[in-house]
Amino acid sequence: MTRRLAPSVNAGSMADIAFLLLIFFLVSTKMETDHGITRKLPPPADDDPAETIIKEKNLFKVELNQLNELLVEGTVMEISALKDATIAFLDNGGESDGLACDYCKGEGDVTSSDHPSKAIISLINSRETNYATYVAVQNELVAAYIELRNREAKRLYGISFIEMKKNLKGARNLNDKEVLRERIKKIQSLFPEKLSEAEPRNQY
User: Fold this and answer.
1) Which helix (H) or strand (E) holds 190?
2) Bridge partner residues of 62 (DSSP)
3) 122, 62 Cβ separation under 8 angstroms
4) Considering the entire predicted model, what is its pTM?
5) Which of 173, 178, 180 is closest to 153 using CA atoms?
6) How far apart, in whole angstroms, are the C-alpha atoms of residue 125 and residue 147?
7) Which among 114, 131, 118, 112 has a CA at the least distance from the CA of 73?
8) 112 φ, ψ to 5°?
9) How many of the other CB atoms lie within 10 Å of CB of 72?
10) How far apart are CA 176 and CA 164, in angstroms?
11) Average pLDDT, stretch 158-170?
12) What pairing do the DSSP bridges indicate for beta strands 75-76 and 120-125?
């Protein structure tokens, strides 16, 4: 009587299939990345101490205490109102003599900032401040700069500042890129982002 061999399955290709599946999942899976707050450090201070003197009216004081309360110039304020208050400060144009701001549309209050190039925002927070509140305040401050830059970009070039930055990323022509870079620098110079953050306090 002839013995029959049991049929066997060729598993040699199973390793290849498993390898292909592994590659597929690695390529198709999105990795979550943490995003921080982008900040550019200020340039080194000049040796001349006279240049570092800042007038009190050119300083916009924003504070966050341990209770997550927002104080602007010593007065309690809702975070939702911070952007408008910041715009009013940056766009004030209160300097009557010297370098007057001819593109500012603020009230021209002599007790507020002289010029956007001189306006500085000072942010102080407690070590116990909630991180979400801190980020929300940062977003409102940055949103104030973006709104003013968008306004001036539309006035000068008929396109918003945000759109100009998007176009710069997508531009392939070197001449177009150079033109966009120069225009972006021009708008940034009109409303330079001067945001100073002090070391967090324990309580105040």
Assistant:
1) helix 174-190
2) 72, 123
3) yes
4) 0.74
5) 180
6) 24
7) 112
8) -110, -170
9) 18
10) 11
11) 93
12) unpaired
